[in-house]
Amino acid sequence: MSVTGLIRLIKPLGLSENAIRLVLSRMSKRGWLQSHKLGRESYYSLSKEGNKEMLAGKRWALDKERKEWDGKWRLVSYNVPEHVRHLRDWMRQELFCLGYGSLGGSLWISPYDHHQELMKFFNKIRANEYVETFEAHYAGPHANQKLAQKAWDIHGLEKRYQKFVKEYSKLLSACKNAIRKRVEIDPKECFALRFRVTAEFINIAIDEPMLPLELLPTHWTGLRAKEIYLEFWKILTPEADKFVDSVFEAEK
Q1: Does the residue 24 lie in any domain?
Q2: Residue 210 has pLDDT above 90, yes or no
């Protein structure tokens, strides 16, 4: 898409033309976008690396599933020598992305079995000799739910979800009323609101380890937050897509 088209597409999100050009330049330098010139106009498209990052973000934030729990904990412990200490950052990042929680130091736990993914990853970075994995049942002195609160910031995550629900549940009701009364809604505004809701939900959901419900507080607010996010997508998408289609149509 041309820079002109991208500016028209992104402007409803509240960014200035200069800010949009700066974002495009930075994304290009990071290898997420590829560009070419046609006459005096610059055109951008998603690079292979950019597509990979986009799909990874979607997988980490939106495609994660909550599973049934067999009552076992999966533990990962590592002891990385100083001469390869850079491996620690890679391990921590991978464990976090898989939903593991830290009990301090180099001990991580998960209620789910990610053994195959971890072995593939440790083989890739040549870290097998520094890692040990276990399956165990927790023997106290606290309940499993209390153990989960030590390994993950469940209280902080719950507060973030509560804030999201408080802000967007009323707005969702207002949108539904407007649609019910057949009030005309600007497609640009629908696009901007859909983007805003999605971005704020993803910002929380990417940190959600998708623990079994028995390890979470009763009436976990994350469930309601996702319902709100999905409802917004359902009701805003028809008009939002009209705006997107109009921008693409102008590119022809």
Answers
A1: yes
A2: yes
